[in-house]
Amino acid sequence: MASQSTLRFGAQTDEMTSLLRIVNMVRTGEATTRPEIGRVTGLGRGVVTQRVDHAIDLGYLEDGDFSPSSGGRAPRSLRFRGDRGIIIVCALGALHIHVGIAALTGDILDQSHRAWDISRGPAETLEAATAMIDEVLARSPETPVWGIAVGVPGPVDFATGRPVAPPIMPGWNGFDVRRWFEQRYEAPVWVDNDVNLLAFGEQARRRDESPDLIYCKVGSGIGAGLISQRRIHRGANGAAGDIGHVRVRDADALCRCGKVGCLEAVAGGWALVRDAELAIAEGATGMLAQSGPDNPVTPERISRAAEDGDALAITLIQRSARDVGESIAALVNMFNPGVIVIGGAVSAAGELFLAEVRQRVYELSLPLATRDLSIVQSVDDVREPLRGGAEMVREQLFDVTFPRWFADGRPTVAAIRANG
Questions:
Q1: Where among 28, 55, 80 does a domain terminate?
Q2: Which of 165, 176, 287, 321 is most buried, by CB atoms within 10 Å?
Q3: Residue 314 sits in which domain range?
Q4: Sheet containing 108-115, strands listed edge to edge, beginning at the edge strand earlier in sequence
Q5: Which of 23-32, 309-318, 334-343, 376-385 shows the lowest mean pLDDT across its residues?
Q6: Spatial distance between the Cα atoms of 382 and 50, rounded to a whole number of angstroms
Q7: What is the residue-wise DSSP string for 9-69?
């Protein structure tokens, strides 16, 4: 027979589990009134009332307006207290820093952006980023920081928050990015590849379209974020989706990673700039050739010139799209997504780029894998990395670590890291 202490522990565990579930149901909109919670969970009216009152006392929920009546007294809706904390997002790119703060609901409240070369190293870069964050925080009411997302343009060991041999980030290998932010803001930090942040944002935007999604970024570099059953797939060591360093058939260009023939070295933005400058030096003419110190060739300029009909730019964009499409086709056969979202500076050429990608994917993928597949362009919004970072932190706080800190009323570094 079970002991009294075992029974009490079991009852406390059941109560905690149902509390967590109720808070998350209200937070996600699955159930927003007490009667709805009872119907979804199967809990009795008295138990639901007790759990909801407890969640209100802890500060997670509050009563809202009355909902429409279906007969009898109208039930009062419940709201998640998304104003109790904020999320900081720091999205580092190869040539920029983008920071912002978001409510616990994921809504972006404020942001700041500046040009920056990440090859200047971790100390200088993170000092610049935290100075930008402090400026944004100073413009907002004092609200506790509940979590921080940091995106970097390179491979990341998600468990430790350290970049691993990032090709375009000299001096960053093994740097403890997570500790840098945790010490400064005394809040839990998660560090991820920048493409994964974009995948999180697209998954939230397209939640009702497909649970399986690939976000492919074709900018200065190339990478992919993989969403499987609405969860990010990072792989065993965080390297999943790194298609930029897949070998391209018959290619011999030297990549920034030190290998030869990588997709990024023939189809990435920096490779297109290299090839455009070479063609211009050899006598190519047209809009793109009208470059100089004040108007350098960039991936963005190549995309715009292609849209405007420049022959050299069109050739570069179409060649990039064909190579990218071939690598994506391999992902389609292995991963079978419902949606592929293409983003980044090179893909900004729009349908010119997308049409070539679609053609290669449908040529090289199995019919069953492409039967319900849609290939679309990402939303052209500079806030997308911020939204994606906020979604990543929300997942970590409320879906992964919630039981560790729920009873404390807010997350702490100690509670989050105590069990992983």
A1: 80
A2: 321
A3: 208-377
A4: 108-115, 96-103, 86-92, 145-152, 189-193
A5: 376-385
A6: 44
A7: HHHHHHHHHHHHHHHHHHHHTS--BHHHHHHHH---HHHHHHHHHHHHHHTSEEEEEEPPP
- Regarding whether 93 and 226 lie in a shared domain, the answer is no
- Average pLDDT rounded to a whole number, residues 113-122: 95
Return d(Cα 378, Cα 213) in angstroms, integer.
12
Q: How far apart are CA 26 and CA 104, in angstroms?
A: 13
Amino acid letter at 250? D
Residue 69 has pLDDT above 70, yes or no: no
**Nearest one of 159, 181, 162 to 172, comparing CA atoms:** 162
At residue 418, the 3 state secondary structure works out as: helix
Alpha-carbon distance of 227 to 234, in angstroms, equals 9
> Are 393 and 369 in the same domain?
no
Residue 209's contacts (CB-CB under 8 Å, 6 or more residues apart) are 338, 339, 374
CA–CA separation, 293 and 134 (whole Å):
34
- Are 254 and 313 contained in the same domain? yes
The domain that holds 175 is classified in CATH as 3.30.420.40
**What pLDDT is attached to residue 7?**
32
Give residue for tokens 């493409």: 195
How far apart CA 53 and CA 55 sit, in angstroms, is 5
